[in-house]
Amino acid sequence: MSQYQRLFLMVGAQTRHTPALERAAALAHATGATLHICAIVEEFDTLGLLSGDEHLNENRVEDNRQWLADEAMLLHENGIRVSTDVILTRDVVQTALEQVADIEPDLLIKDVQHEPTYKRLLFTPVDWQLLRECPCPVHLVSAVHCPLPRVVVAAVDPTHPDHPHNDLNERVIQAASELAHQCNAELHLLHVCDSAHTHMADFGAGTVTMPGFGGDVRKSIHKVFEHLAERHAVPPERQHFLSAPITRSIADFVAHSRTDVLVMGNHPRKLLERLMGSTTEHVLDHTLCNVLAVKAVA
């Protein structure tokens, strides 16, 4: 199993001691990885109507720089190698992507930013943009029950092995297995079949719709799922094959299980899917769910 070497924690201007910071520090301590913390401060600009904008921005940058210096000292004392930066920008996502390109981290870690529905209709949330554009795995943290995850669940789609996106299953399981190994956590496998119409999105297959989803097809997929689990040495008690609407079922599963991190796949989507949002993106709306998103190979 490969060991994490570099972790990138992305924080906002008002972020302080949050679940993502706790998770990032625990992962860095457990793996020996270098932790880079960057406070990305969105520039306050009222189109020049207020003369105090520049002074306000300078104060926000300085406040974050001082907080990060204090935080870095505490992390150093706990044996964590840490670097910090504060960047004032008008484009948070682009700045984050530039940091990823420069640092080349094994993982980008960030607190989930929950947005009201009306705002999501007008603007694409930052988290959704990162899921779509970030080349490295993205760990979005909503709540931390313990600093290191104890149960890591890989959400897979056991479709026909010749499907063009089938390799994403392997990438999802590999990412989940590496995280579980480094944290001494349990690895579980999850698949959800929608019995009314199956949307196999974000699990590794693209989007496939089959009206009148029959029992024979379900049995066939279940058999492939069991073979997938067997190949990766996941025992039966850690295999979860559910039949229900996908997004709701995943959220219910996370809420009523011991899941600490749900590992899911992202793949390129068409315009309609981008407008409506993916399964992975909508799962983030549920506050109990911490997601590790793995991107498909282009």
TrEMBL record:
This is Universal stress protein. It comes from the Bacteria. Residues 9-141, 165-295 form the UspA domain. Required for resistance to DNA-damaging agents. InterPro entries: Universal_stress_UspA, UspA. It is found in: Cytoplasm. Pfam families: Usp. Keywords: Cytoplasm. GO terms for cellular component: cytoplasm. Belongs to the universal stress protein A family. The keyword Cytoplasm applies.
